Amino acid sequence: MQKHSLPDHKCDVLIIGSGISGLSLALRLPNYYKIILVTKSKIHESATLYAQGGIAAVFDKQDNLDSHIKDTLIAGTGLCDYDVVSFIVNNAKTCVNWLINNGVNFDIDSINNGKINYHLHKEGGHSYRRILHSADCTGLQIENTLVNKVLKHKNINIIEYMIGIDLIISDKIDLPIPRRVVGAWLWNCNKRKIETCCAKTVILATGGASRVYKYTTNPNVSSGDGIAMAWRAGCRVANLEFNQFHPTCFFHPDGHNFLLTEALRGEGAVLIRPDKYRFMLDIDKRAELAPRDIVSRAIAREIKNNNIECVYLDITHKSKQFIFDHFPIIYSKLLEFGFDLTKDIIPIVPAAHYTCGGVMVDKLGRTDTNCLYAIGEVSYTGLHGANRMASNSLLECLVYSWSLSKHLIDVLPNIRIIDLLPSFNAVIDQKKYNLSELNLTEDLNKIRNFMSNCVGIERTTKSLKFAKYNINLLKNKIDKYYNNFYLSDKLLDIRNLVQIAELIIYSAIKRKESRGLHYIYEYPNLLPKAVPTILVPNTCNK
Questions:
Q1: What is the recorded function of this protein according to its Swiss-Prot or TrEMBL entry (predicted)?
Q2: What is the 3-state secondary structure (H, E, C) of 83-122?
Q3: C-alpha–C-alpha distance, residues 460 and 1, integer Å
Q4: DSSP code of 177?
Q5: Whole-angstrom Cα distance, residue 489 to residue 474?
Q6: Sign of the torsion angle spanned by Cα atoms 12, 225, 23, 188
Q7: What is the pLDDT of residue 18?
Q8: Catalytic site residues?
């Protein structure tokens, strides 16, 4: 019988993650709920912070909801859930207005008789201009605004540098209650110790898993923590083979890579080879504004077929004032590396950007485990299908945080908090040995190299099997580390990344077709019926 004790932290709602999903959910819950929001770095550090483009919603009178729905379905190449797409698009304007009412400033085109007309970008896959933005730093504007609001709220306790280790599930700790999540074990990075948090409900808002690849536009927090935690808790995951590679990531031989927003192409930037040939005109009638899977594959093939390091983005035909007005952050950042966006063509390559699959949830964000929810990039809702359309991601986060908040207001009074929980060491008997950081760094590089070389923009059956074999070896090795050595920030990161790598590979092997972001040479065509790839815990090796 496990010995239970009082936890280190206690709350009604535990939110893991500090991007737009977690922050907006926290702000939508009433004043009388106690909320703890933990984040693995500083409160501002999240994928949201680096979102340049904007958020999609129908604000233009020439645009319409049906068009937004249709564009999303086309981009998703048959795998979107129509009901979910309709649900999100129909609630888009209300949720974006909530952001505006909370102080987020989007660029304005004009004001006529008191009516604000926002400046709207057009991005890949969209039929109309429908991207609200704040210059080229929309995510920065949203993140800072919401963080400032959250920090002032008396019932929201922010804990920085805290990593989720695992969820505490009632049946795994011998509690005589129906199976549900009752809290989480957390790693305090500053104190280097394991802490316990009990909660009525736990919300995973941890973002995606793009860091599993060598080149990514996302920050170090994008390690797939929530997906891995939910999987270990017994939740199904879906469509993890669909990893979106953003077509335009600044290429630098020393690894100083960062995102160059799709809005650049929306405002007329073109893609060219070193010989200045504009190759996208040969690939798709939408050229540079084709969906991201098409553009990324085209770039990858140009690089491979011409034996070149990169291709180039060219917006030099636009005026300096236009560049300064619309892309001031990108302009300044490129200058640091010796490139002038108004005069120079910019070297770019595709980079891992967005995880289109994730933890399976319903329209309220409910997972397979009672009292456990997932919102944002960590989740699989059915919105993105086989390829996310640009700027639908922040929208999904907003709509699901709104939907979940309404649900939690109804159910929280009926959930009993369990405030006697076992300590982590009572469940996991860890031996106390130190582990070299050099070993962990070497293993991390191996994971990312295997994924980039074998499970990238284009795959083969042979490359997937090779990756599966080697990732399984690494996973067994890292499991031994986890069970026999002191915990550390890096060990926890790598434990989750190798789990995510395994799930992506299993998902890719199961799909015997090329659809959207998953292109495999042996199966170049679409199957007649589009079906999600669903993985169930304890069945992957069967």
A1: Catalyzes the oxidation of L-aspartate to iminoaspartate.
A2: HHHHHHHHCHHHHHHHHHHCCCCCCEEEEECCEEEECEEC
A3: 49
A4: S
A5: 18
A6: positive
A7: 94
A8: 292
Residues of the chain with pLDDT under 70: 1-4, 255, 424-433, 540-542
Cross-strand pairs, 534:
238
What does DSSP assign to residue 515?
Answer: B
Helices 225-232 and 489-510, packing angle to 10 deg: 80
Amino acid at 443: D
Selecting from 3.50.50.60, 2.60.120.280, 3.30.429.10, 3.40.50.300, what CATH number does the domain 4-241+356-422 have?
3.50.50.60
What are the beta bridge partners of residue 518?
Answer: 515
| Cα gap 446→494, rounded to integer Å | 11
Q: Report how far residue 121's alpha carbon sits from residue 133's, in angstroms, rounded to the nearest whole number.
A: 7
Over the stretch 53-85, which tens digit does the pLDDT of each residue have?
899 999 999 999 999 999 999 999 999 999 999
232-248 core/surface letters (b: 16 or more CB in 10 A; e: else): bbbbbbbbbbbbbbbbb
**CA distance to 16, 251, 491, 506, per residue, from 447 (Å):** 25, 21, 13, 15
Q: What is the pTM of this model?
A: 0.92
pLDDT for the residue numbered 285: 92
Evaluate whether 498 touches 439 at the Cβ level (below 8 Å).
Answer: no
CATH of domain 246-352: 3.90.700.10
Q: Give me the residue spans of the domains in the chain.
A: 4-241+356-422, 246-352, 430-524
Query: Given this model, what pLDDT does residue 486 score?
Result: 84
Query: Element (H or E) spanning 169, and its range?
Result: strand 162-169
Q: What are phi and psi of 13, to 5 degrees?
A: -130, 120
CA distances from 531 to 49, 74, 87, 427, 464 (A): 33, 15, 20, 38, 20
One DSSP character per residue, 12-45 reads EEEEE--SHHHHHHHHHS-TTS-EEEE-SS-TT-
CB 70 within 8 A of CB 89: no
**Torsion, CA 290, CA 292, CA 293, CA 294, rounded to 10:** 30
Instruction: Name the CATH topology of 430-524.
Output: Methane Monooxygenase Hydroxylase; Chain G, domain 1 (1.20.58)
Task: Please say whether the beta carbons of 116 and 96 come within 8 A.
Answer: no
